[in-house]
Write a structure and sequence with these properties.
Strand order of the largest sheet: 11-10-9-8-12-6-13-16-15
Largest sheet: 9 strands, mixed
Distance between the termini: 29 Å
Order of helices and strands: HEEHEHEHEHHEEHEHEEEHEHEEEE
Shape: elongated
Low-confidence stretches: none
Strand content: 15-25%
Number of strands: 16
Structural class: alpha/beta
């Protein structure tokens, strides 16, 4: 590992501190080095707050050192005015002449303009250090800007004999039939805290009356996305309680009273529904979504090959009969044990 890789790796480590907090911005870390010694570092902590470069520069006690320093950043410094001033301008204004960048920002507002500004103002700029690792770090951000859709994660739990639910009727209790253990459930809540949104279909809501919130982990609740073609879900259900930002996709214009913190988006359920879903999420600047149910929704995303990662929790139990699990067409890239459960991880 050369010296530039060493400090871009540190930038990536710092950037990860912002996981789940920076949406719709990317995760960015920055390190300032003189003679192979770090004199300042920082990361982007929250959208609307100072960027990584700002925090790194502010952390340097002796600003006179900056003229001899190299600033490292895993993503191209911004060059436009948003909620904060451009970081490329700040770098130049502080006399930093050497800039090492992991990867170019694919956001059309930046996309090479930051590098251009730095070079035009006398900076020596190196681009493309640990580029693949930098891309993986911000996989949600790059998918959103390059593919014009959110990063899509499929997730479900199934029994050892391949069922995701017991058979239900009108007398069945409106709560989940738990398959995974408490440790797997904690992993799921950690996922919810990291991703920006979570989506379920009507049947899942009617059967389980879920909350889809973060309870077994610290973090933000994801935006709840509900597919409810004919507005069957009663307003008394948890997902319509208004406690968390919620988007309902429906074919009907809602004639019920407006629910606080819940908005409705019209979709044609007879057409290409996955594309309509990710178009709505893209419009709402949602960079990642967990598709958590039900069977039809999950299988549709699998069959249309519209997913990026999948997490299947296999519980140590069997139902003998019930609702069959979706059929995944790929082999897992990794298998983990979570106490008595097995977690299969897939990447597309």
């Amino acid at each position: 590992m050369n010296i530039h890789e060493k400090y871009i790796k540190r930038c990536i480590e710092l950037a990860k501190n912002g996981l789940g907090e920076t949406y719709p911005n990317p995760m960015v870390g920055s390190v300032i080095v003189v003679d192979d010694v770090i004199i300042g570092e920082g990361w982007h902590k929250k959208a609307g707050g100072p960027h990584a470069e700002v925090n790194a520069i502010n952390s340097v006690k002796d600003k006179l050192q900056l003229k001899n320093a190299t600033i490292y950043v895993n993503l191209e410094p911004c060059s436009h005015y948003g909620k904060t001033p451009p970081c490329s301008n700040l770098i130049v204004a502080n006399g930093l002449k050497n800039v090492v960048i992991g990867i170019i920002d694919s956001n059309s507002k930046v996309s090479g303009r930051g590098v251009e500004y730095l070079k035009n103002n006398g900076c020596n700029v190196i681009v493309g250090v640990l580029e693949n690792k930098c891309a993986i770090l911000n996989k949600r951000f790059f998918t959103f800007h390059n593919k014009k859709r959110p990063f899509i994660i499929l997730k479900w739990a199934e029994t050892t004999d391949g069922f995701i639910d017991r058979l239900r009727d009108n007398t069945s209790e409106k709560s989940p039939n738990w398959i995974s253990n408490k440790y797997s459930q904690q992993v799921v809540h950690k996922m919810r805290a990291v991703e920006q949104a979570i989506l379920v279909g009507t049947t899942t809501v009617l059967n389980d009356n879920p909350n889809l919130t973060v309870r077994s982990w610290r973090g933000n609740n994801p935006v709840r996305i509900i597919l409810d073609r004919t507005l069957k879900i009663p307003t008394s259900y948890n997902l319509l309680d208004g406690n968390v930002e919620t988007i309902v996709l429906t074919e009907n214009s809602p004639n019920k009273s407006i629910i606080s913190n819940v908005r409705f988006e019209v979709a044609d359920f007879s057409e290409d529904l996955p594309k309509q879903i990710y178009d709505v999420l893209f419009k709402n600047e949602i960079q990642s979504v967990i598709i958590e149910g039900g069977l039809q929704t999950l299988q549709t995303f699998i069959d249309t090959n519209l997913w990026d990662e999948a997490y299947i929790f296999v519980g140590n139990n069997s139902f003998k009969t019930g609702l069959k699990a979706p059929k995944m067409k790929k082999a897992p890239i990794e298998i983990k044990n979570i106490s008595t459960d097995t977690l299969k991880i897939y990447k597309n």
